Amino acid sequence: MLSPDWADVRLFLHVMAAAVWVGGQLTLAGLVPGLRGISADAPRAVARAFAIRLAWPAFVLLLGTGVWNMVAVHAGSKDQAWKVTLWVKLGVVAVSGVSAYAHSRARSRAPLAVWGALTGLSAMLALFLGVMLAD
Ligand code: HEM
Predict the structure, then answer these.
(1) What is the pTM of this model?
(2) Tens digits of residue pLDDT in 88-131
(3) Does the CB atom of residue 122 touch ligand 1 within 6 A?
(4) Atom 18 of ligand 1 has which residue's CA nearest to it?
């Protein structure tokens, strides 16, 4: 059997946090209609618990392990295409974080839907760009 090393730990933590940030948002979106059937307040209460206990801690872990990735793979010595992909990814990560915050502050239906869709889509795009970086 292969022996685990620090690169495995680093990528495990990064991918685990990405799974929570991206997968949690998708799961929550799928549960909202059912939660609305339980009570009008249920979607907000569940979303708040998810945001505070899981999503934001995962986002902080993504930022921390992301910097760890950059140091470990010597980002400065990569070719131009890789660096541009990393910068695009960082922009997309910023959009995902800011739109998640705006979504959590929104009160009416349209801003909730727009910010919610934007954070989910940008989170998935960051995931895809991350996989490209690891090629
Ligand atoms: C929403 C936030 C993020 C998501 C969803 C995400 C997702 C991913 C995924 C899925 C991988 C591929 C791992 C693999 O296939 O082994 C990856 C790799 C990578 N990520 Fe992220 N990431 C995020 C944030 C960040 C941030 C903030 C940084 C930098 C500060 C970063 C830097 C990197 C680097 C450099 C790699 C390549 C690692 C390697 O080749 O060993 N990521 N990311």
Answers:
(1) 0.94
(2) 999 999 999 999 999 999 999 899 999 999 999 999 999 999 99
(3) no
(4) 130
Question: How confident is residue 135, by pLDDT bands cut at 50, 70 and 90?
Answer: confident
Q: Where are the domains of the chain?
A: 6-134
What is the number of residues in the chain?
Answer: 135
Q: What is 43-97 written as a DSSP string?
A: HHHHHHHHIIIIIHHHHHHHHHHHHHHHHHTTGGGS-HHHHHHHHHHHHHHHHHH
CA angle 101, 112, 110 (to 5 degrees): 140
Structure tokens at 19: 């799974």
- pLDDT tier, 68 (very low <50, low <70, confident <90, very high otherwise): very high
The rounded Å distance from CA 23 to ligand 1 centre is 15
